[in-house]
Specification:
By secondary structure, the chain is α+β, with helices and mostly antiparallel strands. The chain has two helices and six strands.
């Protein structure tokens, strides 16, 4: 899989009392990375990128993340099931990993609010990476 990465610039208000980036902020950044990744896969088919719900998220804080230095969020692996999409993500700051995690998204039929098969187009796009 080709590397997919984005750069995030921490903002002062995202810090906690100890000067770390708040854990809720990290979860939000993780969402930004995975949504941008999905958007990169569905260029030209924007409807496919919006029909997802978060089924599970697991985040390991492996180091401290601070204000004052950019953070690189990258997708390290992704796999598609029948109705789900699992995305692995890492974040690093100044060359050291600070966060790793996994999210499982379910492709949703917005009319019936039930899971639906991940489109073949998305499967093909992921396989091509």
């Amino acid at each position: 899989m080709k590397e997919f990465a984005i750069t995030i610039t921490p903002r002062l208000y995202e810090t906690d009392a100890l000067g770390h980036i708040n854990n809720a902020t990290i979860a939000a950044w993780f969402e930004v990375v995975r949504i941008r990744f999905i958007e990169s896969l569905v260029e030209g088919n924007p409807g496919i990128g919006k029909d997802w719900i978060l089924a599970s998220v697991h985040i390991d804080f492996t180091g401290e993340t601070f204000y004052g230095s950019d953070v690189v969020g990258k997708i390290t692996d992704a796999s598609i099931g029948n109705t789900s999409f699992t995305v692995m993500c890492e974040m690093s700051q100044e060359g050291r990993q600070t966060v790793s995690g996994r999210a499982v998204l379910v492709h949703l039929d917005m009319q019936t609010k039930s899971p639906k098969r991940v489109p073949d187009f998305l499967r093909e796009q992921l396989a091509a990476r």
